[in-house]
């Protein structure tokens, strides 16, 4: 740090916030010029960041005003800079505000917002932008009132649309209630790297990574060289699961889908390119299996899952497959000669692990991954992926709209296809969660989402996001 001029980190942080604010205003209004931005400024360096960001915005023609929560402890240089640039302080929020920048508390904040801050935030949110809509809220580093380390929200807290966070992703903005308050989280590198402790506790996959990993068809490929995925799902009771997991597998990167199970006629009628058989034993060679969605838990289902697990190829186990595994005990999974991926929701997790994920979902996921030797994808508001070697990822593309029946079947199908196309299990799982979340968002743009909509949205999503590149 000695090599950096004093305040350099704050300047970089503030510049990143200002840049993001300007982009959001441009998106909303076509230009940031003349728009009204309100800074909520707390007593520490978080407030300092907000003030310097306000300075930069004011210099670009934005009308910036600031409410100071603790005038006597306000970052003095920041305030002077804002004032020099034409920004002003006000006692109460004006009625017309296009954007609120939350610089009340950052990583120094503890115990939720106090009363004065809570009422200030409430007033600010009653303002309206010049388009009549509520102001966009951009949080500096983290939304004020959330616990930076755990994501707990012990009292009132700011609800941000966007959080611009610096140097490292604090778990508080990624998991639990804190994640819900953080909106879209953007990590900015301000050069803190050398001073950060250890490895990040949580990694956030981004589109660049996922698009780079996504297998593309190469010249000379045929359907077999691109990988063949086997889908062993559905039952007489749940024939829809067969269709949904197949629908998830088809847009994936594998060159062929084989279906094995009780839904084979329905699959044949709906998807002519799929090779259907009644059971795993008859299915022929595959490079990966997805098994479990709607499979049931009877003897037949157990036999199918055993056959799949005995194959020396990667396997994604979902839904009823997880219930069966829980009955058998998960420790034997370590003996599998190829990778396993488990995709539980909370109740399935509790059956598998013998305990609820609890408040620390990341640690719980990693513990199950270490115990089973499998990559574990714990579904939730924020899907968490843990690897047996102790890396944890959180997927940020999901949407609550995906909390509807059958979307997990689609995810499992897509994941199987990525495994069959040769992606290592951790990347396949991350990539599937990422693309599935995006597809959920895309589907939600045209109305309430069903799992069929998510499956249908996969192809346009993969093209739009660059996972599919025209060969
Ligand atoms: N760590 C770094 O090197 C950098 C930090 N930066 C900014 O600095 C922030 C941290 O700044 P500070 O350490 O000054 O802390 P904060 O600005 O988060 O909090 C300031 C003070 O508020 C008080 N406080 C805590 N909880 C409160 C509550 N519930 N209600 C009212 N007051 C409360 C405490 O006295 C605390 O020290 C980061 O979040 C980030 O925004 C950036 O400027 C970039 C560089």
Report the CATH C-level class of the largest domain: Alpha Beta
Shape: elongated
Question: What's the average pLDDT?
Answer: 94
Cα-based radius of gyration, to the nearest Å = 25 Å
| Poorly predicted parts | none
Binding site for AMP: 379-383, 408
Binding site for K(+): 46, 102, 144
GO biological process, one term: metabolite repair
Family: In the N-terminal section; belongs to the NnrE/AIBP family.
Summarize the structure.
This protein has 471 residues and is α/β, with parallel strands linked by helices. The protein contains 16 helices and 16 strands. It folds into two domains: 8-195, YjeF N-terminal domain (Rossmann fold), CATH 3.40.50; 207-465, Ribokinase (UDP-N-acetylmuramoyl-L-alanine:D-glutamate ligase, 3-Layer(aba) Sandwich), CATH 3.40.1190.20.
What does this protein look like?
This is Bifunctional NAD(P)H-hydrate repair enzyme. AMP binds at residues 379-383, 408. The protein is α/β, with parallel strands linked by helices and 471 residues long. It folds into 2 domains: 8-195, Rossmann fold (3-Layer(aba) Sandwich), CATH 3.40.50; 207-465, 3-Layer(aba) Sandwich (UDP-N-acetylmuramoyl-L-alanine:D-glutamate ligase), CATH 3.40.1190.20. Helices cover 39% and strands 14% of the residues. It contains 16 helices and 16 strands. It starts with 7 loop residues before the first helix and ends in a 6-residue tail after the last helix. The model has no long low-confidence stretch (mean pLDDT 94).
């Amino acid at each position: 740090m000695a090599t950096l001029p004093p305040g350099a980190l704050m300047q970089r942080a503030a510049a990143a916030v200002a840049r993001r604010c300007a982009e959001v205003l441009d998106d909303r209004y076509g230009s940031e010029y003349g728009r009204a931005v309100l800074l909520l400024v707390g007593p520490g360096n978080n407030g300092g960041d907000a003030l310097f960001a306000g300075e930069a915005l004011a210099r670009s023609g934005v009308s910036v005003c600031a409410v100071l929560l603790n005038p006597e402890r306000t970052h003095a240089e920041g305030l002077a800079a804002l004032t020099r640039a034409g920004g002003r302080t006000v006692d109460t929020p004006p009625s017309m505000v296009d954007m609120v920048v939350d610089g009340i508390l950052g990583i120094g904040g503890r115990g939720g917002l106090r009363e004065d801050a809570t009422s200030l935030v409430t007033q600010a949110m009653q303002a309206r932008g010049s388009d009549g809509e509520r102001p966009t809220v951009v949080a500096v580093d983290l939304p004020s009132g959330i616990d930076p380390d755990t994501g707990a929200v012990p009292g009132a807290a700011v609800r941000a649309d966007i959080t611009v966070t610096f140097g490292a992703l604090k778990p508080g903005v990624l998991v639990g209630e804190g994640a819900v308050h953080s909106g879209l989280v953007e990590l900015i590198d301000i050069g803190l790297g050398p001073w950060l402790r250890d490895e990040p506790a949580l990694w956030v996959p981004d589109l660049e990574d996922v698009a780079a990993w996504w297998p593309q068809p190469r010249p000379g490929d045929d359907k077999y060289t691109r990988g063949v995925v086997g889908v062993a799902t559905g039952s007489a009771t749940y024939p829809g699961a067969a269709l949904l997991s197949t629908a998830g597998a088809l847009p994936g990167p594998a060159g062929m889908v084989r279906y094995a199970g009780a839904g084979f006629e329905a699959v044949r009628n709906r998807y002519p390119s799929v090779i259907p058989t009644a059971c795993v034993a008859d299915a022929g060679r595959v490079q990966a299996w997805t098994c479990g969605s709607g499979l049931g838990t009877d003897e037949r289902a157990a036999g199918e899952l055993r056959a799949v697990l005995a194959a020396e190829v990667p396997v994604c186990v979902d839904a009823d497959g997880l219930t069966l595994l829980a009955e058998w005990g998960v420790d034997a999974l370590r003996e599998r000669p190829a990778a396993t991926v488990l995709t539980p929701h909370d109740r399935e997790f509790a059956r598998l692990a013998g305990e609820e994920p609890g408040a620390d979902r990341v640690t719980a996921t990693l513990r199950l991954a270490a115990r089973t030797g499998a990559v574990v994808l714990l579904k939730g508001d924020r899907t968490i992926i843990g690897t047996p070697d102790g890396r944890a990822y959180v997927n940020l593309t999901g949407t609550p709209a995906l909390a509807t029946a059958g979307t997990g079947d689609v995810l499992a199908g897509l994941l199987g296809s990525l495994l069959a196309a040769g992606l290592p299990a951790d990347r396949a799982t991350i990539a599937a969660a990422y693309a599935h979340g995006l597809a959920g968002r895309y589907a939600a743009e045209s109305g309430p989402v069903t799992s069929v909509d998510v499956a249908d949205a996969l192809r346009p999503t993969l093209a739009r996001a660059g996972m599919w590149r025209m060969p």
